[in-house]
Amino acid sequence: MTKIIGLIKKEVFLSILLLLTVILAVFYPYKIKNYPLFVDWQTITALTGLLIITAGIKESGFFDYISRNMLKKLKNEKSLATFLIFISIFLSAFLTNDITLFIVIPLTLGMQNLIKNDISKLIIFEAISVNVGSALTPIGNPQNLFLWHKWDISFVMFIYKMIPLVAILIVILLVFTWLIFPARKIKFSKKFKNAERPNKILFVSSLTILIIYLISLEIKIAYIALPILFILYLLFYRNVLFKTDWILLLTFIIIFIDFRIVSTIPIIIKYIQMLNLQHSGNVFLFSALTSQLISNVPASVFVSKFSSNWLAITYGVNVAGNGLAIGSLANIIALRMVKTKKIWIDFHKYSVFYFLVTGIIIYILFFIL
Q: pTM for the whole thing?
């Protein structure tokens, strides 16, 4: 019993999701047989491979090596934060928000091991940054990809329409960054001088596997690549599999099941049909608020059933990537990689405020004026 209580305390978010699963199973038992159909297995497959590979790169110690060289050039917290936030914004527009997190967060954690400064809140801003940067392109995040395909918008037109939104989000993010991060000098710890040598073979192997795996995702043969990837690590680097965050995978599976059921509850659908979704502002607000409840990817699918105003939906679900952690699956990836409960509280302290400020400004500028 003590172990169960300890696990619940350690995995609060997952425990809440599992409790919701039980409640939904009681009220909708006939949906249980369809649970496997509710899960986006393409996303789970992609995430599984990325988690294993990232664990491999992290275990190689190479991020500590890169972090050490970066810290020699970036002398204070403000410049470090600005640099990593710009990197996160740029990469997420083309590599997607979740893949970017698998690059920048291990890099940041590597830096934290080498300095005395507490830069944990930088991870929060990296999560916000990838939600901002990924909003620019159709391939930046899953919700954009879905909406882009559904309305058959040209790639260039999509970016053109998203530039005003992303520009405002970046400006506000930079203001937040410059106000919150001090120009405090970075102080190095003993680990900075007494660094362990990286495992070059593990790093190069993992990096090669990452490139091949990303190609397999692009050409949609990840279901073949994943078992091969798993076997390679099992044979040569078994400890990497023990370091992989399998709980995060379970969390994603439960999210897909829970919120797919929630989005089909008749009373919720009936209430939505009563709303005035002919007005662009209402579509924006509804998209944003729905994303805060069921995450922006399922919200995109859900709201598109009731409105054809793709731009208002896209603005809403992308602004709402920040706010509550559930607003974007990328947030959950970022917070899970840190492995401390405090960061969940700190995340909402900054992210919710950022969501409210950006949401109000975007609503006024694009849907009232």
A: 0.80
